[in-house]
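Long-time lurker, finally posting.

We've been working with Potassium transporter (Fagus sylvatica) and I want a structural starting point before designing mutants. I don't trust myself to interpret raw outputs, so I'm hoping someone here can both generate the structure tokens and explain anything notable. Sequence follows.
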Amino acid sequence: MERGDVIEESSFDSEADGFTSNKGHVSPQALDWGTIMKLAFQSIGVVFGDLGTSPLYVLPGVFQTGVKHNDDILGVLSLIFYSLMLITLIKYVFIVLAANDNGDGGTFALYSLVCRYAKVSLTPNQQAEDIEVSNYKLDLPNRRLKRASFVKSMLEKNQITKYFILLITMLGTSMVIGDGILTPCISVLSAVGGIREATSALTDNMIMWISVAILIILFQIQRFGTDKIGYSFAPILTIWFIFIGTVGLYNFVKHDPGVIKAVNPMYIVKYFNRNKKNAWISLGGVILCLTGSEALFADLGHFSVRSIQISSCTIVFPSIVLAYFGQASYLRKHNQDASSAFYSSVPKPIYWPMFIVAVMAAIIASQSLISASFSIVQQSLALGCFPRVKVVHTSSKYKGQVYVPEINTLLMVACVGVTLGFKNTLQIGNAYGIAVAFVFTITSSFLVLVMVMIWKTNIYLIIIYALTIGLLEFLFLSSVLYKFVDGGYLPLLFALTLVTIMYLWSYGYRKTYMYELENKVSKGKLMEIASDPSIHRVPGLALFYTELVQGISPIFTHYVANVPVLHSILVFVSIKCLPISTVPLEERFLFHRLNSHERGMFRCVVRYGYKDARTEWESFKEVLVSQLKEFIRNDVLMSSELADHDKVANVDEEMVQREVRIVDDALNFGGVVHLMGEKEVMASKGSSFLKKLAINYAYNWLKRCVRQADEFFMIPRKRLLKVGMTYEI
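Top reply, 14 upvotes:
Generated this for you. Predicted structure of Potassium transporter:
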């Protein structure tokens, strides 16, 4: 759809009946190889820190009580190797990254992808014109349509399923944010704790306070953005990967090259036969080797699929595998060092250089989940599932690179609290494992849905995925839940708090929207107001903001009843987020004329993707006015096509010029005035106690605590008039 296109009236007065799409999985705009390689280098400093520093604490976490049998080392090493191969490399690098939403990743990106294929969104603000946005269209393969149609129909018809999908999405999002809290704690504590190998003078409390100081500094530099942080951190992480890979190869050759036998999965079977229940419990330690895999997908919006795949396969995966094989080789000869496997296996001449790089790498490791938290909050915020917070776009080149000050402060306070509360990595490891396992299983659940409904993958391949990767993740989840009381409750507590906040906000938002939809101003009432001689028209362009996209908000009649004045040009502006990552600027504005040419009343829907930055007011005004004039021209010309073109051509041009002149006069003599509803939401009489508690207290408290709508949309306050109204919902 071109700029200023005329759209049908029905799309503004009622819900779209439904929509179909005819394109499939869209890859992001092609990047040149130079940019891809730059992003691949940057991604090492942002995405892989957590995954790369896991050798610091995995084997000590598995062998908490020491090595009982020398071949247990081979069994654990085999588990680590195949877990990395199946989940990190095959699942995330080659499958999950392909399920991106126009280059963006994370739980909400998967949710928005599903929302485009099936009407599962609980807010009924879809319009028929949405699917005409270029990024919205998706290729749908023409095979196996019956199974995909059945799943789509099941999702759309069952309200409980819609709520379940939304809650699972919120849970996955909350767990990623929980990862963002736990990753810095365990990484920094593990690295700083390594100094004990050189000196015993440092106590647990001293290590704890050093870690707290490092964490505070880490969160203070987030404001500089992923671009600068990535270029600063990438060289250090590259050195780290070279170090652990080289030391791993050295230990492998020097101590016991026979650990190569661990590539035989039979050692896993023997390990479980020998240790029974204890082997199953140890999976809670093994899963820590996968921490950070979820960041590959959640951080995708900061980079690109190809860049992450290149850095994964060329540097990250080989180095990590060598590190684990080297530690295992060392432990085969030195069972007693299991509690400090990483630092004990480092050759003494390079201990201090390795320690310094390890501390720096551990600090950087936190970056992957911090950046992922920012991205995933931005997505959930745009889709109406998170309270309004400030999103700062830190790069003009890459839209997905963002910084969220409120979330950064929340993560910092929580990290410091966890570090002070737990003081060591063992209990934090138990908590961390639960968060990671939940994210894995939720991502796999959405991935199966994408395979069936969107990709239309062969059913046998889906079954193979479920019986291998899916089963392995279920085993990990069952194991970490066993350690619930030993710190495992922490991420669930975080998740419960965040899901409650997100659901309350989403619930209040939906109820408010439904009230406006049910009480919208009828077309007849609008015409009556427009033609009422007692309502004065004054010069100026008034922008009346509302979230309702199907009709006019009831706040408008409340405004007219109290202020019987209308400006010469009145535009009802609805700012709406589509379930896609970005909307091209030329497709962002949709206009519609609400009455005759003389009345000067228009409807404008401004559509954003969840990665799009809100533009500053001046540039927004310029684009809106420019496209309003273009719409007027297109509208008049379209009307003339119904008549004899030769007879009305001159009249049409005069009409266009007259209407454009009215817009110019409104701007010159009256300027722009902003009108916005200030809604007080209350539960209606007869509502249940829970509903009153949720709406009257919880939702309204959240509204007061977060950024107000005019701040969020960057509306200048000097020419802003708020209209108060109470909604009983």
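Before you design anything, note these points.
The first strand starts at residue 392 and ends at 393.
Residues 159-193 form the longest helix (35 residues).
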